[in-house]
Amino acid sequence: MSFEKLNVNIEIVKGLKEMGITSPTEIQQKAIPIVLTGKHLIGGSKTGSGKTAAFGIPLVQMIKPKQGLQALILAPVRELAVQISEELKKFGKHLNFSVTTVYGGVGYQPQIDGMRNSEIVVATPGRMLDHLQSGNVDLSKIKFFVLDEADKMVEMGFIEDVEKIMSQTPKNRQILLFGATISHEIEQIKKRYMPDSVSVEAERHVQEDFLEQYFCDLRPHEKFSYLVNTLKKEKSEKVIIFCSTRTTVELIGHNLKKQGIKNAMIHGKLTQSRRLSVIDDFNKGKIDIMIASAVAARGIDIKFVSHVINYDLSQDPQEYVHRVGRTARAGEKGKAITLLSDKDYGTFNQILDRYSNLNIEEVQKGEFPKLTFETRMERRPRSFGQVGRGRYSNARNGSHRSGGSRFPSHSGNQRGSNFS
Asked: What's the pLDDT tens digit per position in 326-335?
């Protein structure tokens, strides 16, 4: 199917072709025609499925130049807000409209000036609410209200801010809601504000044919040595190592550099410009290993990732799917490896219960060199507690398919320590 068959404006099609996009993804095929009819829409699909274009293409097609602010898009994190804005500019390169990006940590006045002269605003909820409460923006002519990564907004506690912002928009605006899952809070928004909405859904998880998933049961003090051994043995192109806290991100980055392994870090305490610079360097191949907190798991455009390594697991089982969804995209194969210790068992069982299509196989840790892990950062005056300290547990064997056996278990296939 082509974009022309979806009734997409020829000028937008031209912009898409210049981006190398010639045919719509599944979520785009399902969502774009409905959005163009003016109906409320709830869209669900996995990370990397093209959700931004699914709402962005019809949005830039329907707005009217020079008629004030008409579309508000809310995103949970500033990196995603910036990415959405850049994508909209590319889609609508040959159209006449302006986009302003609004987020915290920077000055107010440039955002105020931008909103007064733009047809579209992409914002994080907290900063948009600040502007509203200060009378810096008028949402009375909003025709399109978009919530991207709506489930993440619920998780981050933004849902009350979202409703306050929504209450300042006209009752007849069109609402577009996108997310990987639909929580109770999102269901309430649906019932309250968009009862006649249409729901569309595309494949929510990476296909098993393209994604290989493994875990290795390790004692906490073995994780770093095993990580270094894996990085040296794997035939990888780009690797994202996910950690659950900023402290762990910084410690892993510091220790990898001590082992001569070049890497860059991204987490919520970095400046906006630094975070965007790291993502840009990673996409351009200037660095091959990025260590990240949850900020990089959702929505952000990170290309051609061959490996995702979970150094530890988030307490939210959904985060696993978003993390591994950074690889095996656009028909490319990928590999996800989880370094599992006893503190992760509870979350791991929830992951297996919740996602019936996951097939995560165990590999035996085998022998690997034991390395020193420094818990004190040279550039910092204070020390951090040892990563992963806790009770140790013996490795278990088994291949684990969601909906089946619990971890620890003794059933299934075994593989050697080489993932290749």
From this structure: 887 766 789 9
